[in-house]
Design brief:
With 623 residues, the chain is of the alpha/beta class. The chain is 38% helix and 14% strand. The chain has helices at 12-28, 45-48, 72-87, 116-134, 155-164, 202-222, 235-246, 248-256, 263-268, 293-308, 320-338, 359-366, 370-373, 403-420, 428-438, 444-455, 507-523, 546-551, 564-572; strands spanning 39-43, 54-57, 61-65, 99-104, 107-112, 184-185, 258-260, 274-277, 282-285, 387-388, 461-469, 480-485, 496-500, 529-534, 538-544, 582-585, 600-605, 618-621. Strands 15-14-13-16-17-18 form a six-stranded mixed sheet, sandwiched between helices. The protein has a four-stranded mixed sheet with strand order 1-3-2-6.
């Protein structure tokens, strides 16, 4: 029987080479590093040093030491470490601290005022943290990063910390070279890219796309979707995916809303181009439109801003379609400044003369010519708003966050990330509106209190001996003056109240409004208010004290609604001051025009609206 051949024992060099190739294979098949693989060059310990595993050059070449024994996972870790030096732009002059640019005779030069060894150490620490966070490969470092505070989350901050605390580059054992030896070659000549000539760091760009690709794949798999479906996406879905991958300002909203491309649904609901239903968390686009991907980006951004800016909730009794038109004008102006996508040629409301105005201000302008603006198209079509549904105050699942709160939060957080990462220009008006949504709304009664403060400032108190105050025990023989408020003439510190007592006004609504008015009258030292009830006719009950307004006034009327007679009676009354303000309480179901000469304000129940543009402030209270 023939003897079996003994298996030849592999040499140390062969084992090292096999482990290296296995490590490279792990890199090539990784979704984050596979597309960023630079050129690899094998070297020996004589070339690199006995303890140096790997070095990276600023030209993108990585040199590996085949003489060192590492496991495949350790090799993948070492190579990924050096790839990240390139991917994070650690050789770039714009990234490095203390780099000053000078021009001499048109030639661009770089002067380095930076400890490049310490900068290398800061970059190594940052990469070590990154690889630890994503749990990639097997670390070659024996000691954990304990000397750097956890809140230092970028290379510049780490470098500053090392500089301030007098660290030396000789203490660096977080790189892939020998302790104290930089693993980055070429730092003395930082790389300069002229963005005006479209020059860029290709490694940074490759890594950015790889990161977006990896995250998108992970999200698809977590959601139970086949990632291969993304390869045959429609132009509309490609546009939506672009926001998730590349545009943080609207990425959170894009991830939340389900994009529905259903011709039959759009046809049944008269959706010509697009519409959004915040309540259902759905965005509808009509697939029969032959828009480009860039045009769909503009359209989708328009709809996302409708949701994020809470336009469905901010109508506040206004005519719904006209309010939608006003919001469209404002959003399209912002998108033009943001330069998102390409503006479509149809279904677009855009007027550069309205730049800088809020939706509320644009709505007031539209009211001056309602017949003209009622004929305009939105993205949904003629005479229909692309904002579908009302308030989305319900929550889904086990979450305690309402859909409205989610939309506001997604837009607010997207703005902060967008600005912090310098992802592009955002109009000041849009920033102001997004941040105002993050603030709690001012209660209607607080707004009404400010109105009272304007017309009824606190009365000054004066000293008088007419009725001295109690004498002090230490000086009982000396009389002390007392403070007393000024005499308040009825015709100078008062206001008028016109109350709609028609059948459409509920007694509870009238009582709540009167109670609030009474409390503020007392707080502002208003002794009397001139009250007129009005339905089909005016009922003047004269001057009434705040206490009587609050509960002892019998409401008359309850017929039709005509407020002009009450206003005329109040303004023509000889005992009513010429500059006295008037507060009008109504539900808005009144004549389509009121002629009011005095300063005035309206108090309406939430959800009601006036049939005309009000010249004075309008306060909405909850019933």
């Amino acid at each position: 029987m023939a003897k079996r051949k003994k298996k030849e024992k592999k040499s140390e060099k062969e084992i090292n080479r096999e482990n290296l190739q296995a490590g490279i294979s792990l890199i090539q098949h990784h979704p984050l590093f596979g597309d960023c693989m630079p050129s690899m060059v094998s070297a020996t310990k004589e070339q690199l040093g006995i303890h140096t595993m790997c070095l990276v050059h600023s030209d993108g070449t990585i040199m590996v030491n085949e003489s060192i024994f590492l496991s495949p996972k350790q090799w993948s870790y070492v190579i990924a470490h050096n790839i990240l030096h390139l991917a994070f732009g650690h050789f770039d002059a714009d990234k490095m601290p203390g780099i000053m640019e000078t021009d001499r005779n048109g030639a661009r030069e770089k002067k380095v005022d930076c400890d490049i060894v310490l900068w290398n150490m800061a970059c190594d620490i940052y990469i070590t943290k990154f690889l630890s966070d994503i749990k990639f490969g097997e670390s070659i470092h024996k000691e954990p990063i304990h000397m750097i505070p956890g809140n230092l989350n970028d290379e510049i901050k780490i470098y500053q910390y090392l500089t301030d605390n007098k660290y030396s580059g000789n203490q660096n054992h977080y790189g892939t070279a020998a302790i104290g030896v930089p693993d980055m070659k070429g730092l003395e000549k930082p790389l300069v890219y002229d963005k005006g000539r479209n020059q860029f760091n290709r490694f940074v760009r490759q890594f950015t796309y790889a990161l977006a690709h990896s995250v998108s794949k992970a999200v698809s798999e977590a959601g139970g979707h086949d990632y291969r479906e993304n390869q045959c996406l429609s132009k509309g879905k490609k546009a939506a995916k672009w926001f998730i991958d590349h545009y943080p300002l609207l990425g959170g909203l894009a991830a939340h809303f389900k994009l529905i491309e259903d011709y039959n649904y759009c046809n049944r609901n008269d959706i010509h181009i697009a519409a959004i239903d915040v309540t259902c968390g759905e965005l509808y686009i009509n697939p029969t439109n032959q828009f480009s991907t860039e045009e769909w980006k503009f359209i989708l951004a328009h709809e996302y801003l409708h949701a994020g800016l809470q336009h469905h909730n901010r109508c506040n009794g206004r005519e719904h379609y006209l309010w939608n038109v006003a919001c469209d004008f404002v959003i399209n102006g912002w998108l033009t400044e943001l330069q998102i996508g390409v503006m479509p040629q149809e279904g677009l409301l855009y007027d550069p003369e309205l730049a800088g105005l809020s939706a509320e201000s644009v709505y007031d302008l539209l009211l001056t010519n309602i017949r003209k603006y009622e004929k305009l198209n939105t993205f949904r079509g003629f005479g229909k708003g692309d904002i579908i549904g009302g308030s989305s105050s319900s929550s889904s699942g086990n979450s305690n966050v309402t859909l409205d709160e989610f939309c506001k939060s997604a837009l607010s957080q997207g703005l902060e990330y967008h600005l912090s990462s310098e992802r592009g220009f955002v109009p000041a008006g849009l920033i102001e509106e997004i941040r105002s949504l993050s603030m709690p709304p001012i209660p209607w009664d607080v707004e009404l209190a400010k109105w009272f403060d304007i017309y009824f400032p606190p009365l000054e108190k004066s000293r008088t001996y007419a009725r001295p105050s109690r004498r002090q025990a230490s000086t009982p023989d000396i009389p002390r003056p007392r403070y007393c408020p000024q005499d308040i003439p009825t015709d100078s510190h008062t206001f008028g109240v016109v109350i709609d007592t028609s059948g459409s006004m509920e007694a509870k609504t009238i009582g709540k409004a009167l109670g609030t008015i009474a409390s503020y009258s007392v707080a502002h030292d208003v002794p009397f208010a001139r009250v007129i009830f009005c339905d089909a006719a005016a009922y003047d009950i004269g001057y009434v004290s705040p206490e009587d307004i609050a509960g002892r006034v019998a409401v008359k009327g309850r017929g039709g609604t005509k407020l002009q007679p009450a206003i005329d009676a109040l303004e023509s009354a000889k005992d009513f001051p010429k500059d006295g303000p008037i507060l009008i309480i109504t539900d808005g179901e009144i004549e389509d025009h009121l002629n009011i000469r005095h300063e005035h304000a309206f108090l309406l129940p939430q959800g009601k609206k006036l049939p005309f543009r009000a010249r004075g402030p309008v306060f909405y209270f909850q019933q």
